[in-house]
């Protein structure tokens, strides 16, 4: 620029520069409005955090229904995960607090809302929720891992078997095993890889439950297309079971008898009959003794049906198609299972109340749990054409004989006389 520029030219140049600066400022303002909507900035005003404070004082039951736990349990869980999800404030914005992050995650599970729907309850942008919820899930799994683990010694397995015998009259039973399909949106570029027998896309949740409706093991992530027998045989648990690498005690005499039988799990027709895995007789014509055996197995299996029923009815996200990539869907399902055990451990009644079938042993009638009136997770298909070892058949026959003689319960014959 020349210093001797005429005054008119200088004035024009100044106007142009000022206009350009004004355009730049307006662009920045427009970008900021897109980056963060005004109502989202007022999170403390518009989120449901204030509603929760009111419910905590005036309506504790509604608080429990809203988050599937009471305020005390929420506080304990918050204290555990805070070190892993705490973020620092910056000059530009205030960080979303651990409490808000945990609230958003639990509400996502309980409501089954999408991130887009959940943003109106949390005043957190949908894209941000996607990051927050997965990060919080990973923290929950980390801090609750002690609540979901297989027994690590023979004595621990014996303790599980003793509890099973007391509650369900099935000696040497270590737990009930089952699997469910959890629906997901079709991942891009995967073709029919996750396409299941019910013509939806899914991943498989395999679980073992103890006598107290708590998961001892979960295996999540097998694609829904895999045959159900293949799902089980490909789990790390099955491989360890076959290789006898689970610290399960060797066969022992049943209490007060000289009948030596192995410790076993119970499953349904989706699973193979194995030396350590009992299932019902599936032939069309059954003897009275075989029907009694099937009843005793089915009665023991009811615990995992109820566990899955409680899990899905309380965490409604599992009943919807999870609109995340399979890897993130696995994290969601695993977190729900860890929370299930955590809430069972703390005996949060609102979580499982009404969620368990109740059998009247005098009449043989079963009062169905409340979850049976709702949609449920998709069951695994029955396994067909599987070769069974002679030893496995002999073990089942011995259990059948035991349940019809010294191991009979007073009411079992009444059930088939009605």
Automatic annotation (TrEMBL):
<dbReference type="GO" id="GO:0005634">
    <property type="term" value="C:nucleus"/>
</dbReference>
<keyword id="KW-0378">Hydrolase</keyword>
<keyword id="KW-0479">Metal-binding</keyword>
<protein>
    <recommendedName>
        <fullName>DDE Tnp4 domain-containing protein</fullName>
    </recommendedName>
</protein>
<dbReference type="GO" id="GO:0046872">
    <property type="term" value="F:metal ion binding"/>
</dbReference>
<feature type="domain" description="DDE Tnp4">
    <location>
        <begin position="177"/>
        <end position="341"/>
    </location>
</feature>
<dbReference type="InterPro" id="IPR045249">
    <property type="entry name" value="HARBI1-like"/>
</dbReference>
<dbReference type="Pfam" id="PF13359">
    <property type="entry name" value="DDE_Tnp_4"/>
</dbReference>
<comment type="similarity">
    <text>Belongs to the HARBI1 family.</text>
</comment>
<keyword id="KW-0540">Nuclease</keyword>
<dbReference type="GO" id="GO:0004518">
    <property type="term" value="F:nuclease activity"/>
</dbReference>
<dbReference type="GO" id="GO:0016787">
    <property type="term" value="F:hydrolase activity"/>
</dbReference>
<keyword id="KW-0539">Nucleus</keyword>
<dbReference type="InterPro" id="IPR027806">
    <property type="entry name" value="HARBI1_dom"/>
</dbReference>
């Amino acid at each position: 620029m020349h210093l001797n520029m005429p005054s008119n030219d200088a004035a024009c140049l100044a106007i142009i520069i000022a206009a350009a600066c004004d355009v730049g400022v307006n662009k920045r303002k427009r970008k900021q409005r897109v980056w963060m909507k005004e109502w989202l900035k007022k999170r403390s005003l518009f989120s449901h955090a204030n509603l929760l404070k009111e419910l905590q004082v005036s309506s504790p039951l509604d608080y429990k229904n809203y988050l599937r736990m009471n305020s005390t349990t929420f506080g304990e869980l918050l204290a555990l995960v805070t070190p892993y999800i705490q973020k620092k404030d910056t000059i530009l914005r205030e960080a979303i607090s651990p409490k808000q992050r945990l609230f958003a995650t639990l509400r996502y599970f309980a409501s089954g809302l999408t991130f887009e729907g959940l943003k109106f309850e949390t005043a957190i942008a949908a894209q941000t929720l996607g990051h927050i919820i997965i990060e919080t899930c990973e923290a929950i799994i980390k801090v609750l891992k002690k609540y979901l683990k297989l027994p690590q010694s023979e004595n621990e397995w014996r303790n599980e078997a003793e509890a099973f015998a007391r509650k369900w009259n099935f000696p040497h039973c270590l737990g009930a095993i089952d699997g469910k399909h959890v629906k997901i949106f079709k991942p891009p570029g995967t073709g029919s890889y996750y396409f299941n027998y019910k013509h939806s896309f899914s991943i498989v949740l395999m679980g073992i439950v103890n006598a107290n409706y708590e998961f001892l093991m979960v295996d999540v992530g097998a694609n829904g297309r895999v045959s159900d027998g293949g799902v089980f045989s490909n789990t790390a648990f099955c491989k360890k079971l076959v290789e006898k690498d689970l610290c399960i005690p060797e066969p022992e005499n049943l209490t007060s008898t000289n009948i030596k039988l192995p410790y076993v799990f119970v499953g349904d027709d989706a699973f193979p009959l194995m030396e350590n895995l009992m299932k019902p007789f599936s032939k069309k014509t059954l003897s009275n003794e075989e029907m009694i055996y099937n009843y005793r197995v089915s009665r023991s299996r009811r615990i995992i049906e109820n566990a899955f029923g409680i899990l899905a009815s309380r965490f409604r996200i599992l009943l919807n198609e999870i609109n995340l990539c399979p890897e993130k869907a696995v994290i969601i399902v695993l977190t729900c299972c860890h929370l299930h055990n955590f809430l069972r451990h703390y005996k949060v009644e609102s979580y499982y109340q009404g969620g368990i079938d109740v059998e009247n042993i005098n009449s043989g009638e079963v009062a169905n749990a409340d979850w049976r009136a709702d949609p449920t997770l998709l069951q695994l298909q029955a396994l067909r054409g599987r070769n069974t070892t002679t030893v496995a058949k002999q073990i089942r026959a011995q259990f059948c004989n035991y349940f019809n003689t010294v191991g009979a319960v007073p009411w079992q014959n009444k059930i088939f006389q009605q």
